[in-house]
Every structure is written in structure tokens, then in C-alpha cells.
Amino acid sequence: xxxxxxxxxxxHFWVAVTAFALGSMMAVMQALARTGVQLPxxxxxxYYLSVTAHGVLLALVFTTFFIMALGYLVTGTxxxxxxxxxxxxxxxxxxxxxxxxxxxxxxxxxSTVLYTFYPPLQAHPAFYIxxxxxxxxxxxWCGVMIASYLTWRRSHALARVPLAAHGMIATVAxxxxxxxxxxxxxxxLILPWSLGLVDRIDPIVARTYFWWFGHPLTYFWxxxxxxxxxxxxxxxxxxxxxSDAVTRIVFVQFILFSxxxxxxxxxxxxxxxxxxxxxxxxxxxxxxxxxLVTAFTVIASLEYAGRTRGxxxxxxxxxxxxxxxxxxxxxxxAMITFALGGFGGAINAAYAMNAMxxxxxxxxxxxxxxxxxxxxxxxxxxxxxxxxxLTGRSLIWSRVxxxxxxxxxxxxxCFSIPNHIAGVLGMPRRVYTGEFQGVAAAQAWIPLVxxxxxxxxILFVSAMCYVGVLVGTMLVSPQGATSPIDYAESxxxxxxxxxxxDRFGLWAAIAVVLIILAYAQPLYHLHTLARFxxxxxSPF
Length: 540
Ligand code: HAS
Ligand code: CU
Fold this sequence. Notes:
Number of strands: 0
Number of helices: 16
Strand content: under 5%
Structural class: mainly alpha
Distance between the termini: 49 Å
Order of helices and strands: HHHHHHHHHHHHHHHH
Shape: globular
Helix content: over 70%
Bound molecules: heme-as, copper (II) ion
């Protein structure tokens, strides 16, 4: 990879790591605050400010910058070069300025709206403008990714797109389809209202555009993790990719079905017909399919690796996998955790069962297993692989790096499982206060909240180990030889020549049709129904 592309990757990467470090510090305070421990300066307003900063810095900033870094890494190593570096840097700086604006708005106490920023909760305009700049920066990243792909295509008209690049281009498509909904929500509805140009806003209409964006957002996070699971981990484990063709189909299914499912976040919202909610239930089960395929194929790749390393018997291959390699361990533990998170997702998606867990602590349990582990732990793991290869510095404190994913895994089970149980017992999500004001039903929740706080502390220790190893590596470790960045081969060599699954324009066009089918009527209905919009509201 060229040194210019390396600089791009590392700049995005370090912004992501900084956001991760800050967001993790917020998290440990929140976990402790809910146990009723008297923290200095503890208050409801500080708690919600912290939850907002935690959600924005981790779910939006850490992920987006990390994925942009991975995009440039994959482009630079598989497609030859990153085309339009000036645009890439412009995108980087716009996203950095946006992040600083949004973070400043949150820390100033004027924008405590949580990461979903549901109206009528109202933030300072700087919060939304900053978020918009972050997205505009990411759009420039999309443009650079597409330009790099098309340039490569011109000189490789008859070749298959390298598989990792295929997954990253799918990610770009998902992101563009998703952020169309966000652009409407923020530019048309929220910004004029937060600037005082219009007086009122319709919460349900805004939420519907939000979830048009919010669900595919989760696959914008997941698909890059899958790129690592499919194309890098088999190599690290000493095996091969199970099937090139199946992997391409999986990525295309994410382009098709990521967006037309958003109403599964709105099963309890009024003004949207039950039939449409049912349609989105069906499409949600469609989007589970590529993950179920992934479960089988990644396990098959790992089994192949384990047997190549001498493993025998039904399960003997598992022990032979490189469990002491921090990248491998991170991804394997992320996969195991995702099996649990995906199971919870199936419950969320069922129209009737959703009623039991919607807006309860179950939800924070669910998304810490999915984005907080399946994705975040995969990203932490790949950092250990990527940083030495890009900088020529070998990791320091290798024992700490080896232990870190296990700590994350243990902390996350300890955090998430009690949250799932507390949710089923009726504990609402996003509540501050440990004592629950003596409510009788809450007595059963208290030990679960305490247990999840223990998980939170373990997670914090793990997060600091991760950041410590990376920063220490840069400060202490001398520069030496670098190892190559290479990807797994397929077990069965793919048939040469272009593949129908590489026709991104076609798949994106079908995805647009599916979005229109899933959203046109419900949105038309919402826009034409008598509406009762609301003034802005700021709780603190
Ligand atoms: Fe979700 C709410 C449904 C996946 C994130 N989700 C959320 C929220 C977030 C989130 C952030 O239907 C909260 C939003 C908020 O603040 O209100 N989710 C699903 C479904 C899936 C799913 C059906 N979610 C994700 C992923 C996320 C994510 C991925 C982030 C990255 N989710 C919902 C619903 C709600 C929801 C409702 C709304 C709830 C409400 O009422 O508010 C599916 O995509 C899951 C499919 C996954 C699987 C698992 C496959 C397993 C694999 C690993 C196997 C490998 C092993 C190897 C075991 C079917 C691939 C181990 C072996 C070795 C040897 C190592
Ligand atoms: Cu969703």
C-alpha cells in the first residue's frame, strides 16, 4: 500500500480510537451511577449528558471513522490505489470538524438528546450541524471508494472484484441508501425547527425517517466486520474462505434488505398501520438470512483451519485454533457473542414478542452484544493486526493484548445477560437512579443492575488495555520490518470472469425499488394524515 493511503488509514483510525477511549470513560460512570454509588457531581442531567456522549462517540463516531479507515485499507491493498486523495482528506477534516461541533454541543449541556435524538427532544443547532458534517464527510469517503472501484474496473473489465473490496463497496451502498432517510430527517425536518425557522415538528414522521436510517446503520457497522470474518480471519487462523460465491451473495443481500425493515423499531408507534409493521417483520426475517448463512460458513472456515492445524474429532479442531492471537480471539469471541445477539434480534423482530421487550433494558442488552461486541470487538481485534502491518511497530505488552478480548467477552456477558433478564422483568431502558424510588417491582431489578455494573467495570478495564496497547506500541515500540496485508483464499477457486453479484448498480437499483415498496405508502399516509406537531423540549 502507498504511504499516502497508509496515512489516510491511520488518521481515521486514531480519531476512532480517541472517540472510543472517551466514550468508554463515560460508560463506566453510567454503569456505576445506576447502582446508586454516590459519584462526585452525580446528577440526572450529567447522567443523560454522559449517555448522549457515550452513544454518539461510540455508535456514531468510533464506528464511522473506523469503517472509513477499513475502507481505505481494503481499497489500498486490493484495488491498487485510493483515487482522489484530496477528496478523501477533505472528507476526513469535514467529519472531524463535525465531530468536534457535536461533541462540544453535548458537553456544553445544551444537547442532551441521546444518540437517537428523537424530537421533540431538542438539541442546540450545533449538535445537528455537526452530525450533518460527519455524514457529509462520510459521503466524500463513499465518493472516493466508488471512484477507486470504477478506476480499477476500467483496467480490470473482466476480473472479479476482490472479495474484501466487494464487501466494502456493499457497505458504501448500504450507507448511501441509509443516509438518504437521515438527510430528509435532519435537513428538512430537524434543522429548520432547531434553528427556530419553524415552530413545531412531528415526532412520528421524524422517527420514521430516523429508522429508515437507523436500521441499515446497524448493517453499515456489521458488514465491514463480516469483511474481516470472511476475508481475513480464515487466513489468520491458517485456513481458507469457505466459498467466494456465497460470500458475494451475502453482501448483496445486505444491500437489498438492510433498509426496508425500519418499522421494526416502531411497532408501538401510533399512526402506522399494523399491516405495514407486519411487512417489515417479514423483511426483517429476510435480513436475518445472510447472517444465518454467515454463521454456517464462518464456522466451516474455522473448522477447516482447525483441521489443517491438526485438530481431529467432532470438536477437537476448536482447540487447535490460535486462541492466543488477539485478533483471532477477538473475532471468535465476537462471533460467539453475535449468536446470542442475533437470537435476541429474532425476538425483537417478532411483532408480538417485541411488545414484551420494547423500551426495556433488554434493548441495551441486545445492542451491546451486536454493535458493542460483534462489531466493536472485531474492530479492536483488527487493530492488533493492522497497526503493526501499517507502522512496522510490533505490538507491545502482548500478554495484555491477548487477555483484552477475553476481558471484553466476560465483561459483556456480565453486562448484557442481566440487562436482558431485567428487561423481561419490566425494567425500562434509559433510566437513571439506582433505587428506582422504592418501587416494589424494581426490587428484582436491583441485583441485575449491580451485576451489569460489574460487567461495565470489566469492560472499562478491557477498553483501557486496548487503548494502552495501541498508544504504547506507537510510543515505545521501535520500527522494524512489516508483514504483508493479505487475504484468505477460497476453498474452491472461483470461476474466473465477472460475477453477477459484482453488479452493484443493479443491486442498488433493486434496493431502491424495495425501499419504495416498503416506505412509500406508510410515509404518504403519515404526511397526509391530520398531524399534531410538537414544540421543542429540553429536559435540562
Ligand atoms: Fe438489532 C434494536 C432486530 C442485528 C443493533 N438493534 C437494535 C438497536 C441497536 C441494534 C443499536 O426487530 C437499538 C436501537 C435503539 O436505540 O432503539 N437486530 C435485529 C435483528 C437482527 C439484529 C433481527 N442489531 C443487529 C445488529 C446490530 C443491531 C447486527 C448492530 C451491529 N434490533 C432488532 C429489532 C430492534 C433492534 C427489532 C428494535 C427493538 C425495539 O423494540 O426497540 C439480525 O440481523 C440478527 C441476525 C444474526 C444472527 C446471528 C448469526 C450468528 C453469527 C455468528 C456465528 C458464529 C459462531 C462461531 C457462533 C442470526 C453470524 C463460534 C465458533 C467458534 C469456534 C469461534
Ligand atoms: Cu433494526
